Amino acid sequence: MFSASQFDSATAFSGGGFMSSQPSQLNDSSPAPSKSRDSQGLIPVTVKQISEASQSGDEKSNFVIDGVDLNNVTLVGMVYEKVERNTDVNFILDDGTGRIKCRRWVNETFDTKEMEQVMNGMYVRVYGHLKSFQGVRQLVAFSVRPVTNFDEIPFHFIDCIHNHLRSKLKVEGITSGNPSSISSLNTAVKSEPNGSQAPSSNPGYAQYSVDGLKDCDKLVIDYLQQHSDMSDERGIHVNELSRELKLPLDKIMLSLKTLGDDGLVYSTIDDYHYKQA
Amino acid sequence: MDTSNPAAFVNAELLHFYVGRRVRALTQVVRSDGGIVIGKSTDEKQLVVKGSPPPAPLTTFVEVFGIVNNDKSITPDIWTNFGDAVDMVSYNKLCQLAHGEYKHLFL
């Protein structure tokens, strides 16, 4: 939904000869079914990443980075060789990893005013759409804003790294189908002396869902499996789960609810004791 | 599109990896006189920039693009004033990440 509306605004702002030959192409290009759940609206990238992106589709210029279809991107860099014309403003964006040609169509006063603020040698934040024109990758920008708070610069590149990691995790999760590959990326993993599964000590990674079963849910069900005692009908107390897995109680309860809905666990003597089904 | 001349994010510690190559570094200006600017790098060590800044006054924090000399100083070509309040810690962390596991996103 979000990306569809971005497409519309891109065509509305760009107009002109450059885009007019390809509007049907934009509307026709639909993300592959396996990616439609993950298609992102706006991705922070470096020029280096753009240079290495592969292209999918026939002659359609659909760029793919880390397994994710690129719709719109954002970059932060310096402006060079700004050339103002009647209908558009061209410039080169140099973000320290490379240089890319950018074009900003100017149809309304708002566009002209925005581009007047932009000078050569200035750091800007650009939002735009990637295009390939005569084999050269270019950016059709629909927003160019001078950077005023310079924390934005390290932020953008850290954002690129973060996004890269997220996409990589999603691809690995789908292809390997094994959520334990995610816990192996955690930096500190505590291993229990009795050899049971080492719990994830980095709750930040528990958010990424893989194959519908959250990382946290997997930990809970694995723990219940390994510590189940058939003779003990009471099961395991939620406090024990919270303590041993180093996860907050509300996360444990949420996982147990999800697992219970799926029929994988059930509560025993009260709402705080659970067994694997 | 041209990725032939990238600049690596560096702090003082990483300078020796990029001697003769183009880098970018954030520095807190300590002293600026006679064609040399002494600053503090994002990892709290001394950074020497051998060049004259542009005529406009330098703010407390400045990012410099330039080539690393053999003596680990930087010969600058671009100076950017980053203002008087900028997070050195984030920039430093970025230097480490961009040099390490995620180098392929930058260089």
Write up what this structure looks like.
- The complex is a heterodimer of chains A (277) and B (107).
- Chain A is α+β, with helices and mostly antiparallel strands and 277 residues long.
- Chain A is built from eleven helices and 14 strands.
- Chain A has helices spanning 2-14, 16-20, 23-28, 33-36, 47-52, 109-116, 152-176, 180-183, 215-226, 238-245, 249-261; strands at residues 42-44, 54-56, 62-65, 68-69, 72-84, 88-94, 99-105, 123-133, 136-146, 209-210, 213-214, 236-237, 265-267, 273-276.
- In chain A, strands 5-6-7-9-8 form a five-stranded mixed beta barrel.
- In chain A, β10 and β11 (213-214) form a beta hairpin.
- In chain A, α9 (215-226) packs across α11 (249-261) and α10 (238-245) packs across α11.
- Chain B has 107 residues and is mainly beta.
- In chain B, strands 1, 2, 3, 4, 5 and 6 form a six-stranded mixed sheet that branches.
- Chain B is globular.
- The model of chain B has no long low-confidence stretch (mean pLDDT 94).
- The A-B interface holds A 46-51, 78, 96-101, 121, 123, 136-138, 149-151, 153-155, 157-158, 160-161, 164 and B 1-4, 6-7, 9, 24, 61, 63, 65, 78, 80, 82-83, 86-87, 90-91, 93-94, 97-98, 102, 104-107.
- Chain B: It is found in: Nucleus.
- Chain B: One of its GO terms (cellular component) is nuclear lumen.
- Chain B: InterPro entries: NA-bd_OB-fold, Rfa2.
- Chain B: Belongs to the replication factor A protein 3 family.
Quick overview:
The complex is a heterodimer of chains A (277) and B (107). Chain A is of the alpha+beta class and 277 residues long.
Keywords:
heterodimer, A: 277 residues, alpha+beta, 5-stranded mixed beta barrel, 3-stranded antiparallel beta sheet, disordered N terminus, B: 107 residues, mainly beta, 6-stranded mixed beta sheet, globular, nucleus (chain B), Rfa2 (chain B)
